[in-house]
Amino acid sequence: MAVNTCDHNTLSFLSSAFASQAGYKRPSTQEREEAATLQPVLKGKLKRATPSDEDTGPFCEPLLLPGDDLAEDPEYPPQTILEWLDDADRNKVKPGRNTIYVAAPPAVDSKISFVKSWSEPKHAESISIEAPDVQDIVDYLGAFYHGMPVKLLPGSLRLAPWDGKATKTPRYIGLNTATECVGIRTRASKDGVFARQLNLNDLLDAAISILPKDAFALLLLVPFDIYEVPEDDFACGRAYGGSRVAVISTARYHPGLDRHQNVDRLHSWPASHCKQYMDACCLESDSFDNARPKKKVSKKVSEPTPAPAESASLAYATLSPLHAAVTAYNALPSLEESPSSATLSALWLGRACRTAAHELGHCLGIDHCTFYACCMQGTASLGEDARQPPFLCPVDLAKMLHASGVGKEARYRAILGFCGKHPHNHLLTAYAAWISAQLSENPAKRAKSLADQEVS
Question: What's the cofactor (predicted)?
Answer without folding.
Answer: Zn(2+)
